[in-house]
């Protein structure tokens, strides 16, 4: 979401919701009023609250069309959306904090088992993404075409996290190349966790 | 995907991919050529293969606009998309077959533990959905407005599965009402698993 706002040059104020502080600030009444699901992120635009990362990004793209985050051709849009969904549906939901907490408490998984789980879904997803990208021409700077799309916005934070979790990424040269190219862009750099005001 | 095709009155041929036959037909070379990820569904339209349910539905909606699967107002579109994403990202990915297989083999989870896991994520998701729907007016026939949208297309199969897994749904009167209303529509009925040619 921050990457999309930066790419479009939309000014915004961040309110940080600490997932591990005070038993999870996302579960406190103040945040639940915004998003009853208690998950981040939520975008507040005037009186409207929008939840779910991909719905927020689609909203920003419709409301502030320049620069676009999807190609114009219908089939290309479908392809780019499918890459974004692959990350958003098949990787991210399995590897986030609430799943980790469930597996640790109810599933009695050790830290090593969590790491194995994390790497398994990263690998499954990245293998599929790499194959998709390899089957389409000229995907070395961005997932598609010559500007960042919603696919890159979804991909880059996952590669960032995979590095943090010491995942081996040698088998994914296209993903790694896209990550490197996006990482030099200001919109991506300024959205990185370590650049946020509350970074500790 | 079948519901979207039916709602739009688009003729199609189904090729059934048996997830449990021959070690998973979705992992056989014939299917991997279509979708390297080895996950269903995939839509083949002429020479184009599109993967990921929500990307397929968005494609169908752009290529065959009538009847629409999203409202026209930008904020309403965002809301409907957020409901669809809540199901597609926060419920479905956690409860599908590949996760069940991983937990059973690598996680040594019993069948009872799988059922508890399944119900946990259904409840988390449905509680959030019910709260979202309750905060918006007149969501008793469909998730939004007076015709089925992508939100209903995502929701109905999840409620169907929750029934199969004996989840208690008394706390979700709006979800249950929407499910009942959609279930009488031919487009939803004909997409139900038991109506498919390969149903056993």
From TrEMBL, chains A, B:
<dbReference type="Pfam" id="PF13409">
    <property type="entry name" value="GST_N_2"/>
</dbReference>
<keyword id="KW-0413">Isomerase</keyword>
<dbReference type="InterPro" id="IPR036282">
    <property type="entry name" value="Glutathione-S-Trfase_C_sf"/>
</dbReference>
<protein>
    <submittedName>
        <fullName>Maleylacetoacetate isomerase</fullName>
        <ecNumber>5.2.1.2</ecNumber>
    </submittedName>
</protein>
<dbReference type="InterPro" id="IPR004045">
    <property type="entry name" value="Glutathione_S-Trfase_N"/>
</dbReference>
<dbReference type="GO" id="GO:0004364">
    <property type="term" value="F:glutathione transferase activity"/>
</dbReference>
<dbReference type="InterPro" id="IPR034330">
    <property type="entry name" value="GST_Zeta_C"/>
</dbReference>
<comment type="similarity">
    <text>Belongs to the GST superfamily. Zeta family.</text>
</comment>
<dbReference type="InterPro" id="IPR040079">
    <property type="entry name" value="Glutathione_S-Trfase"/>
</dbReference>
<feature type="domain" description="GST C-terminal">
    <location>
        <begin position="73"/>
        <end position="200"/>
    </location>
</feature>
<dbReference type="GO" id="GO:0006749">
    <property type="term" value="P:glutathione metabolic process"/>
</dbReference>
<dbReference type="GO" id="GO:0006559">
    <property type="term" value="P:L-phenylalanine catabolic process"/>
</dbReference>
<dbReference type="GO" id="GO:0016034">
    <property type="term" value="F:maleylacetoacetate isomerase activity"/>
</dbReference>
<dbReference type="InterPro" id="IPR005955">
    <property type="entry name" value="GST_Zeta"/>
</dbReference>
<dbReference type="GO" id="GO:0005737">
    <property type="term" value="C:cytoplasm"/>
</dbReference>
<dbReference type="InterPro" id="IPR010987">
    <property type="entry name" value="Glutathione-S-Trfase_C-like"/>
</dbReference>
<dbReference type="InterPro" id="IPR036249">
    <property type="entry name" value="Thioredoxin-like_sf"/>
</dbReference>
<feature type="domain" description="GST N-terminal">
    <location>
        <begin position="1"/>
        <end position="68"/>
    </location>
</feature>
């Amino acid at each position: 979401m921050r990457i999309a706002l930066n790419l479009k040059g939309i000014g915004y104020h961040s309110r940080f919701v600490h997932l591990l502080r005070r038993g999870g600030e996302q579960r406190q009444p103040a945040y639940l009023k915004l998003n009853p699901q208690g998950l981040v992120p939520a975008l507040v635009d005037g009186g409207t609250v929008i939840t779910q990362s991909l719905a927020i990004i689609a909203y920003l793209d419709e409301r502030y069309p320049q620069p676009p985050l999807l190609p114009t051709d219908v089939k290309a849009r479908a392809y780019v959306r499918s890459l974004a969904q692959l990350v958003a549906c098949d990787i991210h939901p399995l590897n986030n904090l609430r799943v980790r907490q469930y597996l640790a408490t109810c599933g009695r998984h050790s830290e090593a088992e969590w790491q194995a789980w994390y790497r398994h879904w990263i690998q499954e997803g990245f293998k599929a993404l790499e194959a998709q990208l390899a089957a389409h021409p000229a995907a070395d700077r961005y997932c598609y075409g010559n500007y960042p799309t919603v696919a890159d916005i979804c991909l880059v934070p996952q590669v960032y996290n995979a590095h943090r979790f010491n995942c081996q990424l040698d088998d994914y040269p296209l993903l790694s190349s896209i990550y490197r190219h996006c990482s030099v862009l200001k919109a991506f750099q300024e959205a990185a966790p370590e650049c946020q005001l509350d970074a500790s």
